[in-house]
Write a structure and sequence with these properties.
The chain is an alpha+beta fold. It contains three helices and 18 strands.
């Protein structure tokens, strides 16, 4: 396998890789992800809220303790070392999402990590430390820093369903459409606005997830 970059990544841009995953391996990945006993759910928003006018697709939450997680982490750690140098620790909750976008499904413009979704610590004078929600405090206040999407569907199998990312290069906003080639992996800063346009026909399948690290300082 080779690591051919589609476009030169920068700290403000998205990084795109052709992973050259063979079709038989991608088919085996899909077979594993769709094995009997997995229950697909309607995908919600951050915090678990549901809003079909913002996001409409299905997903399965899966643990990263397998070769798929290791495969993706190789690219994440490489691009972080070469371009971002962010303080990252792991996949969020050591998991990723297998997403299925059917005809009519979409996800409007949003960010995976922004100020509006941050937990604001509150001073607790009784114990002399700053605390927020318990789950955030005890996990070290991890925040999303890098987002990724691994394409599992050939572009000939569907229309629409474009992953578009709003980048800033160097000072003006540019909407970039991620490549749809089978096995393409897109990595970008979790604070960048992005969307998935409505699928016009067919089905789009992808693995998405987030890499977290200590709260920005």
């Amino acid at each position: 396998m080779t690591n051919n970059k589609v476009n030169p990544p920068t700290a403000r841009n998205m990084a795109c890789f052709h992973t050259n995953l063979p079709l038989e391996i991608i088919n085996s990945v899909i077979e594993e992800l769709e094995r009997p006993g997995l229950n697909f759910q309607k995908a919600g928003l951050i915090g678990g809220n549901m809003n079909d006018s913002i996001r409409n697709c299905e997903f399965v939450q899966l643990q990263t303790y397998n070769w798929i997680g290791g495969f993706i982490w190789h690219y994440l750690s490489t691009i972080n070392r070469d371009n971002y140098l962010y303080d990252i620790t792991s996949f969020e909750q050591e998991s990723f999402q297998y997403l299925v976008y059917k005809e009519g499904d979409f996800y409007t413009w949003h960010v995976d990590q922004g100020l509006e979704v941050m937990f604001h610590p509150k001073a607790d004078r009784r114990i002399g430390i700053s605390t927020g929600q318990h789950d955030v405090f005890f996990s070290g206040e991890q925040v999303r820093k890098l987002s990724f999407s691994l394409q599992l569907t050939s572009p000939e199998e569907y229309t629409g369903g474009d992953l578009q990312i709003l980048t800033f290069e160097p000072t003006y906003p540019t909407v970039r459409t991620a490549p749809k080639g089978l096995g393409s992996l897109v990595i970008f800063d979790s604070r960048l606005p992005h969307r998935v346009t409505k699928v016009k026909s067919g089905t789009r399948k992808a693995i998405v997830g987030w890499v977290v690290g200590p709260r920005w300082k």
